[in-house]
Amino acid sequence: MSFESALTFFIALFIFGITPGPGVFAILARGMMFGARSCLPMAVGMIASDIVYLILACLGLAAVAEHWGGLFTIIRYVGAAYLLYLGYKMFTSKPDLSQQGNAGSDQGVIAGFIQGFLISASNPKVILFYIAFLPTFMDLTVLTTQDIGLASVLTFVALLAGLMLIAAFAAWASKMLRSERSVNRLNKSAGGIMMSAGAYLALKS
């Protein structure tokens, strides 16, 4: 992969990372409730799943999505149920100004990572995206281990930058809310966003 191709690949993935979808909405909701730092495990989990799909695409294993369709369906429903549960907890939580934006109130690093991984892994169409996307930047018939490694690193950095930018914006916006009434609205908004992301995962084909 040339420098120009790598740079274009990075920019394209950054844009892909901030494109609205269940993952972005989940990051937005968590950032509003617990601050930007708490979004890091979720973002890393989402990116880890994407990199798995990226590697599968590089290895030409497009048929995986078809052969393991049942497993993907189970993962999708588990991820959707988890998002709905977290969204409900956010929606019904009582305003607490002392905990606003406090990462210590979050569900934990492992839970955040698993949640993010499930959100991304629940969409087997991602592998098809990479299959269509990668040939624009590299010849998949002559890939080396270095090419796959470079693509994985660029994917990690680009997606992490995009997702954490969204998390930082959400956290900044939530800090503008100081009254108990505004925090209550924030809780309900974040919970609604999270539940909407869960419903999208559950209902999409």
Write structural notes for this entry.
Keywords: Cell membrane, Membrane, Transmembrane, Transmembrane helix. It is found in: Cell membrane. The chain crosses the membrane at residues 6-28, 40-62, 68-88, 109-133, 153-174. The protein has 205 residues and is mainly alpha-helical. The chain has one domain (3-14, 39-203). 74% of the residues lie in helices and 0% in strands. The protein contains nine helices and no strands. The protein has helices at 3-17, 22-34, 40-58, 64-67, 69-92, 109-121, 125-133, 145-175, 180-203. Helix 3 packs parallel to helix 6 and helix 3 (40-58) packs across helix 7 (125-133). Residues 97-106 have low confidence and may be disordered.
Features:
single chain, 205 residues, mainly alpha, 9 helices
Nutshell version of this structure?
The chain is mostly helical.
- What is the total number of structural domains? 1
Helix content: over 70%
Strand fraction: under 5%
Radius of gyration: 18 Å
Number of strands: 0
Tell me the span between the first and last alpha carbons: 35 Å
> Which segments are poorly predicted (pLDDT under 50) over 5 or more consecutive residues?
97-106
Shape: globular
Average pLDDT level: 75
Element pattern in H and E: HHHHHHHHH
Largest sheet: none
Number of helices: 9
The computed structural class is mainly alpha
Protein name: Threonine transporter
InterPro entries: LeuE-type
Membrane topology: Multi-pass membrane protein
GO molecular function: amino acid transmembrane transporter activity
